[in-house]
Amino acid sequence: MTKTNKRNLVVAIIFLIVSFVIGGKTIVNNYKEILTSTYKTYKNSDTNLVGKFIFTFEQYVKSNDSIFSKNIAGQQYFIEGYGATQKLLNKKIINDTNIGYMLMDEQGLLHFAAYNYNTKANAEKLASINDYFKDISMPFSFILALSKDYEGYTTFKKGIDIYANSNLNSDKFISGLDENKVNYLDLRKSANIGDLDISNSFFITDHHWKTETAFWAFKELVNYINLTYGINLDENNYYTNIDNYKVETFNDSFLGSIGKRMGRIYSGIDDYTLIIPTFETNIKLYQGFDKKLISEGSFNDTVINKSLSNPDNPITTNRYASYFSSDNDFNTIVNEDAPNDYKILLIKDSYALPVAAFLSLSCKEVTMVDFRLSKDQSVKEFINNNDYDLVLMLYGSGSICNDAMFDLK
Asked: Which of the residues 99, 266, 275, 331 has the least number of beta carbons within 10 Å of its own beta carbon?
């Protein structure tokens, strides 16, 4: 047996022992809930005795699976232990029962697996959306966010690169937009010719781009809008100038969406940067289809969720959602001190949260719409009840593989 095999065997045995200990403690800690759930299932079954036991066993497995998943003794220690073993084994691909594979690239960044997908079909659906906006005389453009798997920089260990198809999916999608003559901004191309530091543009432990990268995307977007539509959102380059913002970085303060699944030993911990304007602001924030006012005041008091941005809170706090707290079906940001009267509709995924925050400073109104969450309301009706100067759709490479993200109803 080689030294590597011996090491792997020892690590596996240690992990199994820890797993049995944690599993046993979990049963002891939750036996009352397990017994109660099983007894209720047995009592409520109206089949014969044999049927009762079979049905009870099936329901026992289903119901108690959720009990175990919520109440694993020392769950965080279990995650850290699992991640530590994967690190010792130098694993670059990890199987997660809920989301599929997670990958670590050769640069040390974590990724969700990106499977090969027919994104041209969604490009055709987007062409229909584009036609709708043409019919109601609203200018429309699609904005493709940067991919964490950055072509020409990111590399994967041979064998796991088959799960890294975000750029392939994006290329097929953009090709479909070209064929259907849809206006778009591919931020991947902008990064190739700009001053963005690709090596520091994404979190290590989260799938999103950093706040600094979102601010860069905001600048690129404003420039694109001005050139494409002749709209002067930031005529004097004031709002796109980072010197007019407070940039504060909190070191080792964020364990992101992928890192939470693997633990800090495996993934490391990210720094988080908060960017807020130093100039005076007067913002009103509305939520929902009916535009209910939820807060008003300065940018820092309305847009920023201080409990999420606060570095004193646990590293598992979702720092990325510091802008607007979370994704919502409809959010409208009204800038009472706007330099113009432009109103923008932004169809978005989570990549757009910080971008929309900065964009709102350069115009009168930005309304964010999320197709994932607006299921019970008609977006078309919402649009018809409002008058927008421009419609944008900003998606990451994952969203262009989601059919539901192109269902305009």
From this structure: 99
- Written as one string, the DSSP assignment of 234-259 is TTTS-TT-GGGEEEEEEEEEE--TTH
Question: Are 215 and 242 within 8 A, CB to CB?
Answer: yes
| Residue whose pair of structure tokens reads 């820092």 in the numeric block | 300
**How many angstroms separate the Cα of 56 from the Cα of each of 26, 30, 62, 63, 94?**
21, 18, 10, 10, 34
If you search the block for the tokens 């175990």, which residue do you land on?
Answer: 68
Q: What does DSSP assign to residue 89?
A: T
Quote the strand ranges of 113-188, DSSP E. 140-144, 184-186
CB atoms inside a 10 Å sphere around CB 54: 13
What Rg, from alpha-carbon coordinates, does the chain have? 24
Contacting residues for 208 by C-beta, under 8 A, at least 6 apart: 202, 256, 257, 320, 350, 351
Of the pLDDT bands very low, low, confident and very high (cuts 50, 70, 90), residue 65 is: very low
Those residues with Cβ within 8 angstroms of residue 166's Cβ, 6 or more apart along the chain or in another chain: 114, 147, 148, 149, 397, 398
CA distance 333 to 365: 6
pLDDT per position as a tens digit, 345-393: 999 999 999 999 999 999 999 999 999 999 888 999 999 999 999 999 9
Tokens for 71, please give them: 């109440």
